Amino acid sequence: MSITPTSNSTFNFIDAFTLSEKTNLNISILSLRELDNFQLDSSNIPDLMMIPIYQYNDVTRILEQEQLKDVKTAVILPNLHMKDTIRLYEHDIDGFFVKNMSLNEIISGIRFIHEGYIYVYPELAKALHDQFLTLSSTLQSRPEGLLTKREWDVLLEISRGNNNEIIASNLDISDKTVKNHVTTVLRKLNVNDRTNAMLLAYRKGWI
């Protein structure tokens, strides 16, 4: 049995039924108030629970929900500049969406999560980087021997949202060399993609 979306469970005027139909997944969108009264059992486990939040403390309420510990969970932020956005990445959340995303962007993000990755809305990733620059004085020591100097340079470029062509230009190396470095960085950090490499580096205070 799937969750029956309520008529007021909307995401940028897109309801959970539409998202479920478009992705062929069981998507639920619940406000924090609805979540407090929601009982999850084996008959109504969604593929993804999406929850709008308006302040950092809302995340704590989500994480305190014992019933969600084995459910993929994404948050929907009110905008790109929510206070304490950077602290959200300290938590085990599968997706970070923004209220004004288009239907195609939302669907793409949901599918990304379903494939086992963490999804971060691209403009939100840039906002995260901008916030991080203001906190750069709190950088922690990089683990000795984890990456080479050039690999750290590549990881920093990745965190800035640069593609391989731009990285090659900035570091004055070939595209092929960039690809090799990126592959090595992902392997050494034990992550599946560039976004997760960036998030790990932010969380650890390496960049």
Helix percentage range: 40-55%
The count of strands amounts to: 7
Q: What's the Cα radius of gyration?
A: 18 Å
Mass-distribution shape:
elongated
**Structural class, from helix and strand content?**
alpha/beta
Counting DSSP H or I runs of 4 or more residues, the number of helices is 10
- Distance between the ends: 45 Å
Instruction: Record the strand order, biggest sheet.
Output: 3-4-5-6-7
H and E order: EEHEHEHEHEHEHHHHH
The residue ranges in which pLDDT falls below 50 over 5 or more consecutive positions are: 1-10
Strand fraction band?
5-15%
Largest sheet: 5 strands, parallel
- The average pLDDT value, as a whole number, equals 82
Task: Please describe what this structure looks like.
- Mean pLDDT is 82; it is low at 1-10.
- It is built from ten helices and seven strands.
- Helices cover 46% and strands 11% of the residues.
- The protein has helices spanning 16-23, 32-36, 56-63, 85-88, 103-114, 122-134, 149-159, 164-171, 175-189, 194-204, and strands at 10-11, 14-15, 27-29, 48-52, 73-77, 95-98, 119-120.
- It is α/β, with parallel strands linked by helices and 207 residues long.
- A hairpin with a 2-residue loop joins strand 1 and strand 2.
- Helix 7 packs across helix 9 (175-189), helix 7 packs across helix 10 and helix 8 (164-171) crosses helix 9.
- Strands 3-4-5-6-7 form a five-stranded parallel β-sheet. Strands 1-2 form a two-stranded antiparallel ribbon.
- It comes from Oceanobacillus locisalsi.
- This is Response regulator transcription factor.
- Residues 140-205 form the HTH luxR-type domain.
- Keywords: DNA-binding, Transcription, Transcription regulation.
- InterPro entries: Sig_transdc_resp-reg_C-effctor, Tscrpt_reg_LuxR_C, WalR-like, WH-like_DNA-bd_sf.
